Amino acid sequence: MSAVVVTGASRGLGRCCAERLAALGHRVIGLARTGSADAPFEMRTCNVGDAASVKEALADLRRSTDVFALINAAGIASMNLLMTTPISTIQRIVEVNLLGTIYCCQAVAPALIRSGGGRIVNFSTIAVALGLAGESVYAASKAGVEGFSRAFAREMAGFGVTVNVIAPGPIDTGLIAKVPRDKIQAIVERQVVPVQATPEDLWNVVSLLLSPEGRMISGQVLHLGGA
């Protein structure tokens, strides 16, 4: 089966998606800052926040005609008030979450076009819709992802490539491991569906967007749990 590029594939939601795709028989090219020896798919070391690193990691795909999808799951967060957030942290969050998404889309889009169409799934967060205090920089980076994806979807529509965003509420991964349980529950209770989602719930939405049945869905931000 055709290849799928998954960023943030060494852990968390990226790892979940990469494993599911590999199990379905896809060639999965996982990107992460560090490798993972036990990954049941191909891993490549890459700093998605660095354009040169992305270009090097995906150089062999420039002339490919066998790439089906890109899933941008790489992301970092720092739950702090803006006034106490170091400039270096602000820059890093924007580089990975926003610029990393843009760089990877730019690198993979030509291969998707040559393949005759495909799917791009980017990740955002409920923090954008709810305007969560203490997550202003994180929310700003992901709001950028949402705006970029809506516009990019129109750029890619004529090539048969869909571009969508999934914006989940809190899911138990390393991203929220240090967040107090009561704060997580408070966010979940603000969702339309006040239940904490699982990685499997997120995969179900990804699976729909990648499927033939998802061909008419593009330029959308899907809030897992509702916002």
What would the average pLDDT be, to the nearest integer? 94
Largest sheet: 7 strands, parallel
Q: List the uncertain runs.
A: none
In whole angstroms, the N-to-C terminal distance is 36 Å
Strands, count: 7
CATH top level class name: Alpha Beta
Rg (CA only):
17 Å
Structure described in brief:
This protein has 227 residues and is α/β, with parallel strands linked by helices. The chain has helices at 12-23, 51-57, 87-114, 126-130, 136-157, 181-188, 199-210; strands at 3-7, 27-32, 42-45, 67-72, 118-123, 161-168, 221-224. The chain has one domain: NAD(P)-binding Rossmann-like Domain (Rossmann fold).
Task: Provide structural commentary.
The protein is of the alpha/beta class and 227 residues long. The chain has a single domain (3-224), classed as Rossmann fold (3-Layer(aba) Sandwich), CATH 3.40.50.720. 41% of the residues lie in helices and 17% in strands. It contains seven helices and seven strands. The chain has helices spanning 12-23, 51-57, 87-114, 126-130, 136-157, 181-188, 199-210; strands at 3-7, 27-32, 42-45, 67-72, 118-123, 161-168, 221-224. Strands 3-2-1-4-5-6-7 form a seven-stranded parallel beta sheet, with helices on both faces. α1 (12-23) links the parallel β1 and β2 (27-32). α3 (87-114) runs parallel beside α5 (136-157). It is globular, with a radius of gyration of 17 Å. The termini are far apart. The model has no long low-confidence stretch (mean pLDDT 94).
